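[Automated response] Your request has been received and processed.

Submitted sequence:
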Amino acid sequence: MAKENRADLQGKVLRLADLVAYQDGTVASRMIVNKPVGSITLFSFDEDEGLSEHTAPYDAVVTILDGECEVWVAGETHQMKEGETIIFPANVPHALSAVTRFKMSLTMIRE
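Generated structure:
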């Protein structure tokens, strides 16, 4: 799918994994919805890339779109693969790391 801006995506059937490409040795992201009440951002992670432990002030819903990763939430480890979803609660430490190249959707719900 050609790179389109956010407005061009509205009203279309989308395959989210196709909207962000893998890039060697790094993490790539693409925000597809950005509203005052929340956002949806797509990420691709090359193998061995990840996000270090952090917290967020809002609940975050992560859905794996392709590949496999490992996530940590409040000290508990989870193995995740395509089609699986986890909710990171607001203000709870979490992190993730690629087991293979993987893509994910991150939905932030702001209060």
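Summary generated for your ticket: Residues 6-9 form the longest helix (4 residues). The longest strand covers residues 94-109.
If you did not submit this request, please reply to this message.
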